[in-house]
Amino acid sequence: MTDSLPTTSAGAPTQGAAPTRPAGTAPGTPGAAVVVDHVSHTYGRGDTAHHAIHDLNFEVMPKECVSIVGPSGAGKTTLLRTLAGLLQPSEGAVWVNGKKNTGVPDGMAMVFQDYSRSLLPWLSVERNVAFPIAGSSLSKPERKALVDESLEAVGLKGFEKRYPWQLSGGMQQRVAIARALAYRPKLMLMDEPFASVDAQTREGLEDLVLSIRDRYDMTILFVTHDIDESVYLANRVLVLSRPPATLVEDIRVELAEPRDQITTREDPAFIHLRGHVARLIHSGGEPV
Amino acid sequence: MTVAPEKNTRKSERAERAARPGRPGRGRGVLVALGYFFIPLAVLVVLWQIATTVAPSPFFPPPVDIAENLVKLLFGGDAVFTEVFYNDFLATVGRMLAGYAIGAAWGIVVGTAMGLSQGSRETVTPIVEFLRSIPATATLPLFIILLGGGDDMRIIFIAYGVSWFVLINTASGVGSIHRTMLDLGKVFKISPARRLFSIVLPAASPKIFAGLRIASTAALLLAIVSEFILASNGIGFQLIQAQGRFQLLNMWSWMLALAILGLLINFVLDAVENRVLSWHKLSRQKI
């Protein structure tokens, strides 16, 4: 039924799409990496129903690095689980690389918030990184090369034989990122990946995301509740309202590249943007 | 400032040691453990020996006699082992192991199915709780009526009694796997079989092992009890025979055999657990 919905709505980036597109083809701009088309989700029903997200519409083009930010409990995780195909939305649909999500889409990797649960403690670092590709058709040397390269990209060369629980939290999250990279995803989802590491480790991990963004050919969608982080990392910031979450604003971030933890954060444009995002979030989605 | 690097090396040393589970420093640890185990035991044996020498009693034979008698029961004759060793000792061990293996396998399979689906857990749990409340030993008469007095009955009886411990622990272990770990399998499109064998079962293995441990004690107990009735061989049978003929020395010798058997099983399980679950122990030490 969602296929026949008109794909235009006020302010949505899907504006201008032909209302009578052929069945089975994605709405929105052709070639978009992700199209979120009138997605709403409600948990439960009756009196205890929780309307988490309401009529979300946006699209992400290939190679974009988009952060999704919103007040806590805004349905960010619901949105991400929907994008990942782990949750079927009550209404609307998500399209990844031109295909409608009916389960987990192809070529998608995810970095979870809780690294201590997402890494398998009975496997060494290198076997954790190799885990998603261990069942693939790649040859052993090819797999080894992917693992080595990914560990090198996250700065964990020499830690192959260690176990996750022998590493600090920041290093564990690097392992999780390396695992996602070894999978060679087209789309990488990150669910508040740095929420449970200390501030300095966090800066290092943010710069790691910037470096892999430039090095690998992939689209990154990044959920965070940290306003500075959302602006620092992204080409675009999507601001969500309080639940039921709607899209408050879609902000293009044009800051000087390469970004730098000190100079970027001093940039008046950065300060202006973070102020703007903060105001939007604190007002909970009311116009400012 | 000077403390930090020292602390670091110690940390990395510990990590190094942990990476190769249980190599260096192991010999001494084992010796100390053996000391803790054998010294109190030796004291008990010596006291018992002295007491029975001072005041002999037909009910409590001296420990040296018990041990000597056990050796005579099991070893010697024409070959290394006596007929009793094969007919009774090994028969019990065989029944126990067969029942244990079947019960453990059944417990792991059903427990995993229960743990994975909340629906099946909710449906089956009341039945499981009810059935396992019946002491397994109380079901022996029923098993005899249904299956007769043969070895197959004994093995199935042991399997039945043992399975509950493994089942409950497996269901709880599988059911409490964190959602993130399960999502991981789905997100990276891991095949269902690999998800089961490479995520679910390893993640639940500490709890499964705890169940296997309790089950091993139960297996020995049930094997002996099953040999009390309608049996023609086995350690349980020999115990009842000794009781009937008032052969107290034999009774004590068989009890000693069972104690040694129990310790041996524990030792094997310890060794397997150390190998399979070293990651679990070490990761917990870290926290």
Automatic annotation (TrEMBL), chain A:
<protein>
    <submittedName>
        <fullName>ABC transporter ATP-binding protein</fullName>
    </submittedName>
</protein>
<dbReference type="GO" id="GO:0016887">
    <property type="term" value="F:ATP hydrolysis activity"/>
</dbReference>
<feature type="domain" description="ABC transporter">
    <location>
        <begin position="34"/>
        <end position="267"/>
    </location>
</feature>
<dbReference type="InterPro" id="IPR027417">
    <property type="entry name" value="P-loop_NTPase"/>
</dbReference>
<dbReference type="InterPro" id="IPR003593">
    <property type="entry name" value="AAA+_ATPase"/>
</dbReference>
<dbReference type="GO" id="GO:0005524">
    <property type="term" value="F:ATP binding"/>
</dbReference>
<dbReference type="InterPro" id="IPR017871">
    <property type="entry name" value="ABC_transporter-like_CS"/>
</dbReference>
<keyword id="KW-0547">Nucleotide-binding</keyword>
<dbReference type="InterPro" id="IPR050166">
    <property type="entry name" value="ABC_transporter_ATP-bind"/>
</dbReference>
<feature type="region of interest" description="Disordered">
    <location>
        <begin position="1"/>
        <end position="31"/>
    </location>
</feature>
<dbReference type="Pfam" id="PF00005">
    <property type="entry name" value="ABC_tran"/>
</dbReference>
<keyword id="KW-0813">Transport</keyword>
<keyword id="KW-0067">ATP-binding</keyword>
<dbReference type="InterPro" id="IPR003439">
    <property type="entry name" value="ABC_transporter-like_ATP-bd"/>
</dbReference>
From TrEMBL, chain B:
<dbReference type="InterPro" id="IPR000515">
    <property type="entry name" value="MetI-like"/>
</dbReference>
<feature type="transmembrane region" description="Helical">
    <location>
        <begin position="129"/>
        <end position="149"/>
    </location>
</feature>
<feature type="transmembrane region" description="Helical">
    <location>
        <begin position="155"/>
        <end position="175"/>
    </location>
</feature>
<dbReference type="InterPro" id="IPR035906">
    <property type="entry name" value="MetI-like_sf"/>
</dbReference>
<keyword id="KW-1003">Cell membrane</keyword>
<dbReference type="GO" id="GO:0055085">
    <property type="term" value="P:transmembrane transport"/>
</dbReference>
<comment type="similarity">
    <text>Belongs to the binding-protein-dependent transport system permease family.</text>
</comment>
<feature type="compositionally biased region" description="Basic and acidic residues">
    <location>
        <begin position="7"/>
        <end position="19"/>
    </location>
</feature>
<protein>
    <submittedName>
        <fullName>ABC transporter permease</fullName>
    </submittedName>
</protein>
<feature type="domain" description="ABC transmembrane type-1">
    <location>
        <begin position="85"/>
        <end position="273"/>
    </location>
</feature>
<keyword id="KW-0472">Membrane</keyword>
<feature type="transmembrane region" description="Helical">
    <location>
        <begin position="220"/>
        <end position="240"/>
    </location>
</feature>
<feature type="transmembrane region" description="Helical">
    <location>
        <begin position="97"/>
        <end position="117"/>
    </location>
</feature>
<keyword id="KW-1133">Transmembrane helix</keyword>
<dbReference type="Pfam" id="PF00528">
    <property type="entry name" value="BPD_transp_1"/>
</dbReference>
<feature type="transmembrane region" description="Helical">
    <location>
        <begin position="30"/>
        <end position="51"/>
    </location>
</feature>
<feature type="region of interest" description="Disordered">
    <location>
        <begin position="1"/>
        <end position="23"/>
    </location>
</feature>
<dbReference type="GO" id="GO:0005886">
    <property type="term" value="C:plasma membrane"/>
</dbReference>
<keyword id="KW-0812">Transmembrane</keyword>
<keyword id="KW-0813">Transport</keyword>
<feature type="transmembrane region" description="Helical">
    <location>
        <begin position="252"/>
        <end position="269"/>
    </location>
</feature>
